Amino acid sequence: QVQLVESGGGLVQAGGSLRLSCAASRSIFSLNPMGWYRQAPGKQRELVATSTSGGNTMYADSVKGRFTISRDNAKNMVYLQMNSLKPEDTAVYYCTALYVHWGQGTQVTVSS
Questions:
Q1: Nearest one of 31, 16, 15 to 77, comparing CA atoms
Q2: Which of 36, 47, 54, 85 has the fewest CB atoms within 10 Å of its CB?
Q3: Which pLDDT does position 35 carry in this prediction?
Q4: DSSP code of residue 87
Q5: What is the pLDDT of residue 40?
Q6: Are 108 and 18 in contact (CB under 8 A)?
């Protein structure tokens, strides 16, 4: 079992940046993948990005070139750097481990 706690969400203008953090309650070295999902109002939860300890990353087409996922296994942390934010990025962002364990989510709102 692992608990995940997200932070770093907030309100930002279009074109701005935010960095989300996900703190895990135990070592994440063997938790592959770690990732971020998001859910906008009235929409299904969608995959944003994933990362493995081996260095493999994957991104949704909608965020490629703008978002960067990273992890610090020594600190049990996963990050999502979001640049060039768009209003359509507005959603609750969730951290996940193995697509089984989930955090409570952090709200990201991008104003136009």
A1: 31
A2: 54
A3: 97
A4: G
A5: 96
A6: yes
Nearest-angstrom CA–CA distance, 12 and 24: 26
Q: What DSSP string describes 10-36?
A: EEEETT--EEEEEEESS--TT---EEE
49-90: per-residue pLDDT in tens?
Answer: 999 999 999 999 999 999 999 999 999 999 999 999 999 999
User: What residues are paired with 77 via a beta bridge?
Assistant: 23, 72
3-state DSSP call for residue 3? coil
pLDDT given at position 21: 98
Percent of the chain whose predicted confidence (pLDDT) is above 90 = 97
The DSSP secondary structure of 32-97, one letter per residue, reads --EEEEEE-TTS--EEEEEE-TTS-EEE-TTTTTTEEEEEETTTTEEEEEE-S--GGG-EEEEEEE
Cis peptide before 33 (omega within 30 of 0): yes
Going from the C-alpha of 8 to that of each of 19, 104, 105, the distances in angstroms are 6, 13, 10
Query: What does the pLDDT average to over 21-38?
Result: 95
